[in-house]
Specification:
alpha+beta; 11 strands; 5-stranded antiparallel sheet; 2 domains
Length: 212
């Protein structure tokens, strides 16, 4: 069960990506699950979600951790007992974790045409700009970037449309920048993204604080 990709944006950050090809039975092997995690898996209605959840636990092992090192705050944000920062995402047959000494957020999204149907819910034309490049891929990156920045904010309650913005970008650059403005939280982030699979069928987007 090899890693699909390992990315090290800097000396204290690692991003692990897994392509989920194993059966549910195989994914249950050789991992520790605490009681909370066992209950979560048991209550999931979709095997796809179960496989995503379990593959994340295998990624924790790749990072030298286990389910015992992970807990969640009251808003559902994952935290590590070591004090390092972690972000988690899975979509269909990909999963990922990002671990850093700094704040970090990550998201994986399948590139799907249906995202245009909800564009109005997360794109604000007052500060989100669209280029002439592929609209569906652009919207997927914008959603992923906003999701990644949302995951960094520890308290919940953000509006993707009103509180989170991403600056214009080109696919060839694989990066942008963004910000979260909400109450006394005014923070700016570097955004990086990549597409997975030959047909660019998945977008992986991660956000880290801008360095002054």
């Amino acid at each position: 069960m090899p890693l699909y990709k390992l990315i090290k944006p800097n000396s204290h950050t690692a991003i692990y990506i897994w392509k989920i090809e194993e059966s549910l039975t195989d994914l249950f092997k050789d991992i520790y699950l605490n009681e909370r995690s066992k209950a979560r898996v048991a209550n999931m209605q979709s095997e796809l979600h179960q496989r995503g959840f379990l593959s994340v636990r295998h990624l924790l092992i790749e990072a030298g951790l286990s389910d015992a090192d992970l807990y969640y705050n009251e808003y559902g944000k994952p935290l590590l007992k070591s004090g390092k920062h972690i972000s988690i995402s899975h979509s269909y047959y990909f999963s990922t974790i990002a671990i850093s000494d700094d704040d970090i957020g990550i998201d994986i999204e399948k590139v799907r045409e249906k995202i245009t149907c909800i564009q109005h819910k997360f794109v604000n034309t007052d500060f989100d700009s669209l280029s002439d490049e592929n609209l569906i891929k652009q919207l997927t990156v914008i959603w992923g970037a906003k999701e990644a920045m949302y995951k960094i904010y520890p308290y919940g309650g953000l509006s993707f449309r009103e509180n989170i913005a991403i600056n214009p970008f080109l696919f060839k650059n694989k990066r942008s920048s963004g910000r979260v403005i909400f109450k006394d939280w005014h923070k700016f982030y570097d955004i990086n993204f990549l597409f997975l699979e030959d047909a660019d069928t998945f977008a992986c987007v991660y956000a880290m604080p801008q360095k002054s």
